[in-house]
Amino acid sequence: xxxxxxxxxxxxxxxxxxxxxxxxxxxxxxxxxxxxxxxxxxxxxxxxxxxxxxxxxxxxxxxxxxxxxxxxxxxxxxxxxxxxxxxxxxxxxxxxxxxxxxxxxxxxxxxxxxxxxxxxxxxxxxxxxxxxxxxxxxxxxxxxxxxxxxxxxxxxxxxxxxxxxxxxxxxxxxxxxxxxxxxxxxxxxxxxxxxxxxxxxxxxxxxxxxxxxxxxxxxxxxxxxxxxxxxxxxxxxxxxxxxxxxxxxxxxxxxxxxxxxxxxxxxxxxxxxxxxxxxxxxxxxxxxxxxxxxxxxxxxxxxxxxxxxxxxxxxxxxxxxxxxxxxxxxxxxxxxxxxxxxxxxxxxxxxxxxxxxxxxxxxxxxxxxxxxxxxxxxxxxxxxxxxxxxxxxxxxxxxxxxxxxxxxxxxxxxxxxxxx
Amino acid sequence: xxxxxxxxxxxxxxxxxxxxxxxxxxxxxxxxxxxxxxxxxxxxxxxxxxxxxxxxxxxxxxxxxxxxxxxxxxxxxxxxxxxxxxx
Lengths: 420, 87
Description:
Distance between the termini of chain B: 35 Å
Number of helices of chain B: 2
Largest interface: A-B, 37 and 39 residues
Number of strands of chain B: 7
Number of strands of chain A: 21
Number of domains of chain B: 1
Strand content of chain A: 15-25%
CATH topology of chain B: Ubiquitin-like (UB roll)
Number of helices of chain A: 14
Oligomer: heterodimer
CATH topology of the largest domain in chain A: FAD/NAD(P)-binding domain
CATH superfamily of the largest domain in chain A: FAD/NAD(P)-binding domain
Shape of chain B: globular
Radius of gyration of chain A: 21 Å
Helix content of chain B: 10-25%
């Protein structure tokens, strides 16, 4: 069994910042991540590859430290006893012991069902961006990027750089909300620079505001989509090879819940409840980054650093970062307000539209249920291998209910990892 | 070494892909991109790209239910998808 003073789950910006801060205090640090390379989603493919200079700087500092151990392609299964985690790699299983645990499990996309969304060729927005960074072939492909939030612009810019032809970017937020958000960027000048860079990379790409994908069509794979623009009477048809569609981000709170950490509702998200030191309701467990509420890379870096310092006992230094964190928390709140989902998105799924993709459960079977539990018991919704992580975000928007508990193991686990 | 090639086998076909490419990408480079069939028999392809949705599951070296979006191609790897069944 391996022992760590501080064990961190997630090697994105929050996890790396926490590791850097904790290692500088002399702690023996371990970082678990389920991807082949560190960086999380925003720095996917390795921090040394990123244009954001903070990524390679942080990475070099971490590589120089001899008290940090990276455990890549490693997933947490469950806690066999307090301060222990059972983890699984593609080939083996191990138990890790920690004194303090920092959860930096990031976020996933909220994916909403609409007719045709299960066709091959329909992906998440960040989803296709992530796939493209892993070499997914997009050269010359016609791609529509749709959904909501600033991620659409970042995803479109990445896909374009990989050779895709971006047919259009379709944003459900209306002009007024977008103008308000743009005005709010005055408080965060670095975001204006970023926005201008994206705008220049995406010059000539149609940006359709106040619009959303109504349905996707194709014989076997995606061929076209129908787009609703505002309250126009007729829909537009766009031909495309890929539709990258995501409706914002959802905090990954499942591991925290499995460990008994309390959650709270904030900006209509379920988030891990924390105090000013990033401590959860469970002794010796901290949480930083998107798990505490969607806020982006800057907030994640600040929270990670505070968590790393607080977990290693330097509250004084952690406190110096509080005002910096507060600034980015305001940005997060503006983000949530501007890109709130329009009610029409709840009405897209037809009775024969699949909502739970693991178990092929349709909207018509689910819409009469009043709670997650009864839907699960009677339809198998959420009982497949994603364990409700995709359909739970959809049922929350469609019906107002989502998974009410986490089952262990929290990821599909080999029998041999449990019985050895 | 971006110009290094990895040789692997996808659905009984020998293919070469650049080093650093995921199995999900290699499947899309060499066919329809379909990874699995749903419980209702419908073809599915990667969705979330980040190891959450489980749509990209394939069999790698005889081990089923491996996430192709989080696995890098390696020399001699044997990948089986549901693509041929779906076609």
